[in-house]
Sequence to fold (33 residues):
Amino acid sequence: MKKQILRDLSNNTFFANFVVTFAAVTMILLNSV
Fold:
């Protein structure tokens, strides 16, 4: 049970990092245009 929770947390952290990175890249591209 605890391992499943840790796995979900790591997946959520990865997803959050992906969203933040995608947002940062989008802002850079918009600013460069």
Notes: The helical segments are 2-32.
